[in-house]
Each structure stands twice: as structure tokens, then as C-alpha cells.
Amino acid sequence: MFVIKCPYCGERDQTEFVCHGEAHIARPKVPSEISDEEWGSYLFFRSNPKGIHYERWTHDHGCRRWFNVVRDTVSDKIIKTYRMGQSKPEIENE
Amino acid sequence: MSNQNRTFSGGRIDRNKPINFMFNGQKYQGFEGDTLASALLANDVHLVGRSFKYHRPRGILTAGSEEPNALIQLGIGARTEPNIRATEIEIYEGLEAASQNCWPSVNFDIGGANNILSRLFPAGFYYKTFKWPPSLWLFYEHFIRKAAGLGESPKAKNPDRYEQRFHYCDVMVVGGGISGLSAALAAARAKCDVLLVDENSYFGGYLSNSEASVNGKKIDDWIRIVCEELESYEHVKLLNRTSAMGYYDYNYVTALEKVTNHHQELSKTLPRERYWRIRAKKIILAQGAFERPLVFADNDRPGIMMASAGMKYLCRYGVLPGKSAVLFTNNDHAYLSAFEFVDKGAKVTIIDSRNEASDRVKNRCKELKIKIYFSHSVISTFGQKKINALEIQKTEDKGNKLVGAVKKIDTDLLLMSGGWNPAVQLFSQSRGKLKYNKKINSFIPDIAIQDQRIVGCNNGDFDLSYNLENSFQSGLKVAKELGKDINFENSNFNGKEHIPFVSAQVEPYMIGKKGVTKGSKHFVDFQNDVTAADIFLAQREGYISVEHTKRYTTTGMGTDQGKTSNVNALSLMSHIHKKPVDEIGHTTFRPPFSPQTIGAIAGRSVDSLFDPIRKTSMHKWHEENGAIFEDVGQWKRPYYYPKKGEDIHKAVNRECKSVRKSLGILDASTLGKIDLQGPDTAKFLNMIYTNAWSKLEVGSCRYGLMCNEHGMIFDDGVTSRLGENHYHMTTTTGGAARVMSWLEEFLQTEWLDMQVFCTSVTEQWSVLSISGPNARNFLSELTDIDLSKESFPFMRFREGKVCGIDARVFRISFTGELAFEINIPARYGSYVWNEFMTHGKKYNITPYGTEAMHVLRAEKGFIIVGQDTDGSVTPFDLNMEWIVSKKKEDFLGKRSFSRSDTSRNDRKKLVGLLVNDKTTVLPEGSHIVEKSKSQPPMKMLGHVSSSYFSPTNGHPIALALLKNGASRMGDEVEIPLMNGKVIKATVTDPIFYDKEGLRNNE
Amino acid sequence: MFSPLSSKIAVDSKAVKLESVSFVGKINLRIKEEDSESRKIVSEFLRYNLPNFSGEVQGNNETRTAWLGPNEFLIHCLDAEKFNIINKIRDILGNGFYSVTDVSDYYITIRLSGEKSIEVLSKGCPLNFKQYLNIKDSCAQSYISKASVFIDRLADDQIFDISVRWSFAEYLWDWLEDASKEFLSSH
Fold first, then answer.
1. Which of B435, B828, B832, C82 is the most exposed place for a label (fewest CB within 10 A)?
2. Strand order, beta sheet including B14-23
3. Containing H/E element for B84?
4. Is the pTM of this model over 0.80?
């Protein structure tokens, strides 16, 4: 059970949040112009790394904001949380 | 004779407060301060249960939470609880307890024959039966279920209260022994918020009531003074009878506090147990260690117990469990028990598996005239219900070879000690890595993953002075790490123990003269009846990884999770494979640390508080008017309103007819409602819905379908334009939260520049949906809004007063009739509903429930998302091309419509079905085939999604998703039912009533 | 007027007090974090600054405004004033990007006070009360058991206004009442 630092509300219990999977998967700008394969990759394919993982969470029982989390999937350590719209921080595996 | 094994003085029991209790139907007396185990031993009751598999007589092995044998059925009736450790039960007046796993009685147990038939129950017995044909397993199961297993669960509902509690602290100390107290004291003095928990009813742990001392003071005085100081701090919380059960990520610990378990009368308001959910910045583990049994022939008879347990019964409870004792040890430390027993008048003989002991203990033995047999091993024991004799023999080759003559010794108590296993369970749960320590022949904590420290015996350190000081320093260090000012440096605690712990010098297992495969049993795991022979067998049969050995033999899989057995099993494997224990490894420790009640985990979430029940503001009226309710998510919605003598069919038929003929009213308050504001709202709706929204005028409403990015329908509803930049969206009842989250997701993560705000207003509005040819006539009498066809046409929205209350009225229809949805602020919802019911009498206003609503909409061919769709249905599948914009460049789901699977033309389509017999209402979910066969497989064409008797048409109607549906109009299909009957039906258009849609335009 | 707590009987003891708060005006206001201009206009109208941080509550004799999110506020006012305030805000912000919504019936408010109120809350609310809601005029959103809540601390004494969605109010009341029982009887 994590403690998650909501970028707006501070450290809160994980049970206030919901995880929404991998972050930084942008919706294609003009979907009609991309191939079925590219569209399929946007819809269905996600990375499943051992180590650093970028993911989206919402503070459902709180400010209702979406934000990003960098989590090490091995140690479950949350390395960083940051707001939507901020660029993806480069973090090396430990 | 009562309390015949009680010493004349000593112990932490109150001899002035006798307590009467029942065990196996017999009355006994103990004293306040006793556990059930100590009170039974005081009354010379050693035989307390039968073992799990072989039904062997078993006694009390330990004096703590690690007890594998003395599992008791505690209490009677609804409060009865199985598998409770007698060593942990504090007795109270009137306590009733019984042995379990024995029939008809613990003294004469029919299952005891299993002991004789034990060759039929080898390791892996269950797996072997599983491998045979399943019919044979069914045959075995009957007998195994009866014979195996532990206590009985209560049949009645648990009448007790259970509380839960979140708690935050700077420092949590787990274990209130000497080390835990010392660490807690340092952290407390440094002004940390400290929580100290201990599973016992007292603090001080193993050394309390011992001869040890600190700074020349008796250890008990030191414990008392430290506890008093800790209690004096407001920032310190001490919890007794509280076991830390689970250690999860980010220093999250769950702990179970027994609040009133030890009381005679359970309180009506106080909980029986409290489940603590603790988050600590720092955790100090000071859980101590469990003494390790020795493995030798018939090491499980009643009257054989751990040396430390014997000492605890003697010192803490004033019980001398045997007068002619034998101590079998492989370490110096256990000699302390022998000295205590001699001191209290018992005769003791020591069998030491080592060839030497320290001078200190040898000299003391000389003084006390205790005979020591070095390099000897106990090779067999005797006595049915309690040990009465044992045999010893000299050993060579580290105990692996027996030499010389066998000597028989009469005894009434065998104390054993194979050294100590640090209680690494919580550390390991916290993902800490263990390492094997050869000095103590056990696993100790190595690398911690979380913010924690391990002190005292828990860390494999057994020196009192070192532990006092080191634990104190750990407390200081965590305080410093927390940024506290420290103005003191050391504890100045100098401890003195009678006998220091000296490492075990022999391998921690023993093999009797008869060898492991013949005759007598050498128990490794007492609770699950796993013997050394079973471990050997598992290795021979190839189950050589620790995880396989564990599951194949079930060692360590009992309710005690192998607290006394795991290390011995690993040592045995190490011996068999001639590999160091490190290389054998260990199994994974998982929560909970000890068995815990489900009640505590459920807490208050039982009965009416199990889950929120959401009710609309008109709920009371529905209740008072006999509504039968349906669960829709957490909501309660009226299903139908039966009149006297009506069943569901009659009621629903009447409700439907009233709507079609005159006037019906539906409580539609549960519909999701979202208020959207901002300059880009129309643009946003264009992306969210499949149809176009740019041209929707202020005051108009429009139906929309939402698809996910896979192109599949996931919600629908009507959205109305209230103002220039202001919209009111409705969603399905079940989809409200999902849609809200969907909108926010795109606004917050994809289209950050889009200027739209969404606010849920579901409960702000009570929604009264009136429907039927008289809807206008009726409403016009109660509102100032001009309802005329010209000024308030279909799919429009108006604001005004209804029954004098500010209302939003939407002219939309889900029944196909002339209809208005009237939104009233929730506080006035029931008022307006009551007004409607009174004024509507002349129109025979009829409340209708969700079932009639479903029938009415199905007659019109209107879909219900989640019933006629299932996450794999596109708008095209429902013949709803008309609602999918071709002009819009993009909207959610659009791209997926051109994927090969969604665009193929033989997909299932929504159709209507009319049964040829004009009477059968097809079960929803029925499969549709072209031509039925006598048995599957049959070529499937689709399924029935909605099916009702239509009162308007006078015959059943159904909606179905049918392969190539559009090209099958007029075809006959077959629907094989569960009962073997085959129903023929004709494929039709899915609209069964008012195809032109004239009625709602009235 | 009807509230889901209409039939509930208040709990009244020194340890725990539980009462239902009658309807007041509640207005949900959304203004973008970066839109300092609109914030300034509304602040001038309210005659205090909109709260800027999580947990912040601002107010005067007429209104009380709590932080719900970086672009979301909850304004409390007299019930009779709510439409005036909504209309006024619409007037002063014009056709800009904001939202102002009446949620007076959406939320039901339960007032919990008494010496043991934090202990009652701690039974089902995962907030660290040493860190959150530890002073008067602070607020937090979280959950209590299975209901999402907004909690507003009104005084240094333990007085908390707990707002919950209408349809969860009865559940939450029953839950709080049951959780209080431990502290009500004499032993």
C-alpha cells in the first residue's frame, strides 16, 4: 500500500487514488491519417518494464486531478510525481 | 485436587482471584493472570488435543503465539472460534473451551487409528489422490474432510463488534520485550510519536519474570519503570494484546488488537477486536525469537515442551509442569530452565547433544547436583497420554551415529531446546532479505528494503547488555533521521543475564536409533503432522525445491505457518542434499503473522453498512406505496409497484398500459447528470459523442452515443444546451461515474487547452419523468411554462416553476409517448412527487418502475447500454448509422470504425424477434441458431438481448443481436432453450410500436 | 423541504456530537489556475482571496470558500443568497472560461464534533490528522469508509462539517453514528 504524493494535495494513502496505466501515450493527432497498425499500437500495446515505469493516476477521493507517477516496478518505490502536461523526466533504472 | 502443579509462591498470577472455567466439559480453576495453557498445566492437564493427520495425543509445546499443538475450540454458539492457541487465551470466569479434531473425546479418539494406518497417509497424499481419476477423489474426500481439519467454524452470525483504526506515527516499535522497550524509550525521549505494540498482555517479553537484571535492579523493576516513563509521554501509545499481522509497502503495518476477548461479558459498545492500519515513518522490529524444537523419535508426546516455555510456566504462572524433568538441549542457554526447575524443587537430568558446555553452567550443575550426559541424544520416548520415560544413547559424528548402551530414564516432563529462530516473519514480509547465520543455525535479517531497523533477538543478537544499548541507539538514530534534537547519548543500561546464550554447536536435528523410515515418528512440523521421513520422501520423489517440499509435505502450512518447524525442515533438506542451508533457501513469509478473524478485516462493513445504499429523494414514497426495489449499482430503484393480488406480470402490464393510455410517472433521479460550462463545450461534445453538436441551439436537447476508442458503445444519454456556453448532460444510471471520469480524462490529459469544466450534479436534481398522452394536460395545470406544441416542441428544454418550485423541464421521451422530464432541486423532489400524485388522480397517474420502463422502451426499439450492448457493439451494429457523423473529421472511436473487424459486413446487428407461437417470452441471453440440432455444437448466429411480453402488442417481443441481421428480415431462426424445447421465431424490424415516432411529437 | 437525514436523531454527548446541518448555499466554482485575472475579479467580489493551496479555507461573514482542487472551489453562503452570487459571478466574468454551478442539494452536510471526533473519523478515513485538518479553517477531501467526503474544520475545537453526496448521506450518518457508539456509554 503506497503513500502517493499528489502534486496538488501532498502525501496521501494509495486508497484515495486510482491507477490508469501507462503514461505519455498521446492520442494520435489525426487518427484518420495513420495506418491500422499504428492505431492498433495506440489502442492495445503498452510497455511492461521491469524497473522504471511512467504511469497515470487520479486523486479520486481528493482533488480529482490526473497526474503522472514514476514508479520502479521492482521496488514499488515512487520516484517522482508530476503534473499532466509536464514533460517526461528521464530517470535511469537503479 | 485443584492446581496441584502450582508452586507455593511466585508468578504474576493473583492467587486471591480464582477463576472457574470449563475444558472438555470438566470444571477447573485457575487464577487471574493465567492463560488457558498455564491453568490446564496447573491442573496437570497435559493432553489437550489430537494431531491433524494422525490424531496423536498432543500437549502444550510452547507458551506463546507460535504454539502448533494446543489449538482449542473456544467459546460456544455464535461466538465459538476454532484453532485458538491455548497459550494465548487469557482465562476469564465461565470460559468454555474444548479440544478439537477428536471424536468422541480427546482421551479416546477414533481417528487415532490413522496413526496406525499412517503408511496410507504419506507426504503428498493429497496430491497423489488428485492424480487419480476424479471419481476416486470424491470417494476419498468424504473421509478426509471428516478426519482431517481443525476446529469448527460457528454456524450463527457473529454478534460481536469489530473496529478499525487508521494511525500515523513517527516510530512504530513492534515487540515490547527488553529491546523494544529500550528502543521505544530512546525515540520517546527524543519526542517522536511512538507506537509500541506487543502481542502479550504484558510488556517485557521473554525476560520478564526472569532472574536477569539491569543496573543491578531486577528486570521486572526495570520493565515497570520504563513502561511508566513511556506512558507518561503524551506522544507515546502503548498497545498490549496487539499483534502486528502484515507489513506492506511504505511502512504500512496492520495490527490486530484484542480489546475484549479476555473479558467474560463482551461489551455492547466496545469492540471485541480492533484492526489497526498503521503508517509509520520508521519501524523498529523487536519481535524476539522462537525457540526451536529438536527432531527425535516420538518428540510429540504430551509432556514434551520447549525449555523456555517450561521456564515461563514456572516463573510467570507459578506452575511446575513436571517434577522429574529431563532437559534435552544443544545449547547453554536452556540450562537456565533446568536451574529454575531445580530451584523450585524438581529433579532435572540434562541430555546435551554437544560434547561440552561452558564452565559457568557446568559449575552451577555441580552445585545443584544435576547430572549431565554430554554427546547424548534422546532416542525414544514412552507414555500414551503423557510422557513417562525416555531412552538416551551416546552419539558420534555430530549426532549422526549412535554408539554404546541405551539408557532408560523415567520422567514426567521433557524440556527441549534446539536453539532460537529470530522471528523474521514481518521483516521478510517487508521484502527484507534474510541470511543464514551458522552461529545460531537460523535465518537472520540481512538487507532491509524499507525504512526500518531490527534490534535484539529479532536480529540474532542474544546478549542482554548489547541489546539494551544497541536498541536504545537504534531508537536515537531513527529520531535523528526524523530531525529530532537529541541531547543524550546512551542508555547507561547494563544488563546481566543469568546464563548468556551460547551458540548451538550441533546440527539442529536429531535422528533416533530406529532411523527415520521405520516405526517411530520424528516430527518436524507438529501442527501438520510432517515427519522427518516425509521430508526425506519428498526429496526422493523429486520435490527438492523448498517451495515444492513445503507444498508436497505441507510443512509450515498450518495455522502457525511453521514458526517452530521451518528451520528444522530446511536443516534436514540441507543434510539430505549435503548443501549449506543458504543454498537450500527458505519459503516466502506472507501475512498474516498469526491467524486473524475475518470480522476484524470486515470491521463495520457488515449488515446494513456493508455497502452504501443510495436512495433518491422520493424513496420514502416508493416504500410507502409498496414498491418492489431493484438494485442498480448501489442505487435502489422501484422495480414495479404491485397492487393487491398482482404479481410482477400483472403489475408491469398495468403500468405499461397506463403510460400508453393516459399518464405514467417514473423516478428517474438516478440518471447521471453532468453540468458542462466553457466556450469549447460544443467542440468537446463533438469529440465525445458520435454525432454533431455544433448546431444545437440554446434551449434544445439532443440524444448522443458515446464510444470508446475501440469504436464500441459505452454510454448514451441526452444533452441539452442551457445557455451559450452551458450544457446539461445525462448519462445512464450505472455509467455516471464512468462517464464523468472519461470526460475528465480527456480534458485533463489530452486536450489541456480545451476550455470546458465538468461538474457532477447527479444528486442536485430529482427527476420526475411523466409520460403518456395526458402528460401535457396534466403538467400544464401545475406549471407556468407554456407547454403548447408550438412553443415547447419535442427535444426542447424550458425553465420555469413546477408546483411553485424552480424547475428544469426537458421534453424528451424514453417510452415513445409524449413525455416531460422535470428536474427539481433534490430537497423539493418528494414534495413535487406528492403534488403530482395528488393532482394526477384524474388522469389515473400511475407510478411505474424500471421493468415497465424496459418494456416500454423495447416496444420502441430503444436500446439500453449494457443490456443490448456489451462492450463489443458499435453504433452500426445497432443500425444507428444516423447518429454517426460522417462530416466530423474526428471523434472518439471514429478511427476504429474502419478497422477490418468493425467494418466487416457480417457483424451481428440489432433485430427484432417475434416468436411464432405468440406466447413464449424468450429468456434473455438465449442463443440463436439457424437450425437446431439434438446437441451442440450448433452454428451460432447471436443472442437475445432483451425480451418481454408486450402489453401494447399483446404478444412477446424481443431484441437480439444477430449475425447478418439486416439481410435476414422475415427469416425464421431457432432458439434452443435450456429445457430442450426449441422455439421458432421470425426476424423483424426492432421497432414494435409507433414506427413513425408520431406519439412523442404530439 | 426534505433531506435524507430528516428522520435522523442527533447524537449529543461530550465525546461525540452528530447533527445534520440544514441546507445552505453551496456553489461549485471553477477557474483555471493560470487565470489570475478571473481569480482577481472573483476575489474582489468575495472581498477575500480565493484559496490557493490544498486544505485552505477563506471567508468572511457572508461566504466561506474552500479549496477543492487547483481550479476548483466550493463557496458556502446563505441559501437565500446562492442565486444572487451565481448570477453575480456570471455577470462579472462574462463569457470567459469558468464554471459556476449550484450544488446546494448535491451535498448534504453532517456536523461532527466532540472530544472523540478525530478518533471517530480515524476509524474510516485514511487522512493523517496530525498533518491534515489540524487547524481551524482547513479542509480536506478524502473518504470515510465507502463514501467520498469533503471535510471542513470550523474551529480549533474538534468541529468538522462533513459534506457527502446526497445519496451517500444516510449511509455516512449511520456509519458515523455506529462508530461513535464506543464513546457514548459508560463502563
1. B435
2. B26-32, B14-23, B95-99, B71-74, B81-85
3. strand B81-85
4. yes
The answer as to whether B869 is a domain residue is no
Q: Write the pLDDT tens digit of every residue in B494-544.
A: 888 766 666 555 555 555 444 554 568 899 999 999 999 899 999 999 999
Q: Test A20 with B896 for CB contact under 8 angstroms.
A: no
A16: which chain C residues are within 8 Å (Cβ-Cβ)? 126, 142-143
Whether B557 contacts B569, CB under 8 Å: no
B113 pLDDT tier (thresholds 50, 70, 90): low
* Residue B662 domain-assigned (yes or no): no
Distance CA B510, CA B530 (A): 15
Per-residue pLDDT of B311-330, as tens digits, reads: 999 999 999 999 999 999 99
Least confident of B94-108, B288-302, B343-357: B94-108
Measured at the alpha carbon of residue B737, what is the angle toward residues B736 and B742, in degrees to the nearest 5? 100
Among residues of chain B, what percentage have pLDDT more than 70? 93
**Could you tell me the three cell numbers for B974?**
431457432
Question: Is residue A19 domain-resident?
Answer: yes
Closest Cβ opposite residue C181 in set B269, B612, B827:
B269
Q: What is the pLDDT of residues B913-922, one digit of tens each?
A: 999 999 999 9
User: Is residue B394 over pLDDT 80?
Assistant: yes
Last residue of a domain, one of B582, B601, B620: B601
Domains of chain C, by residue range, sit at: 11-22+106-184, 25-102
Interface check for B741 against chain A (CB to CB < 8 A): the answer is: yes
Judge whether B752 is closer than 8 Å to chain A, CB to CB.
yes
The CATH number that domain C11-22+106-184 falls under is: 3.30.1360.120
Query: For the structural domain made of C25-102, what CATH number should be given?
Result: 3.30.70.1520
Distance set, CA B90 to CA B21, B30, B241, B270, B626 (Å): 11, 10, 10, 18, 52
B581 phi-psi bin (left φ>0, alpha ψ -120 to 50, beta other): alpha
Q: How far is C66 from chain B (nearest CA, A)?
A: 16
Domain-embedded: residue A72: yes
Q: Which of the residues C52, C53, C54 would you substitute to probe the A interface, choosing the one with the greatest number of A C-beta atoms within 10 Å?
A: C54
Question: Does the beta-carbon distance from A2 to B250 stay under 8 Å?
Answer: yes
Q: Name the helix (H) or strand (E) containing C148.
A: strand C147-155
Q: Residue B671 belongs to a domain with what CATH number?
A: 3.30.1360.120
Domain count, chain B: 6
C25-102 matches C11-22+106-184 in CATH topology = no
Instruction: Tell me if A35 is assigned to some domain.
Output: yes
What count of CB pairs under 8 Å joins A to C?
40
Peptide bond into B956 cis (omega under 30): no
Closest by Cα among B60, B57, B104 to B85: B60
User: Which is nearest to B339 in space by CA: B331, B348, B330?
Assistant: B348
Give the range of the structural domain holding residue A55, as residue numbers without chain letter. Answer: 3-83
Which domain, by its residues, includes B242?
A: 162-289+422-496
The reply to whether residue A58 touches residue B741, judged by beta carbons under 8 angstroms, is yes
Q: Are B740 and B653 in contact (CB under 8 A)?
A: no
Chain B residue nearest residue A18, CA to CA: B741
* ipTM > 0.95, yes or no: yes
DSSP letter, residue C121: H
Check whether residue B459 and residue B408 sit in a common domain. Answer: no
Taking residues B714-737, report their average pLDDT. 97
**How buried is B119 (Cβ within 10 angstroms: 0-12 exposed, 13-18 middle, 19+ buried)?**
exposed
Cβ contacts of B667 within 8 Å, gap of 6 or more: B616, B618, B622, B637, B638, B766, B767, B768, B769, B833, B847
Asked whether residue A92 is domain-assigned, the answer is no
Q: Sign of the CA dihedral B881, B883, B889, B893?
A: negative
Q: Confirm whether B318 is domain-assigned.
A: yes
- Output the domain CATH number for residue A37: 3.30.2270.10
d(CA B294, CA B444): 19
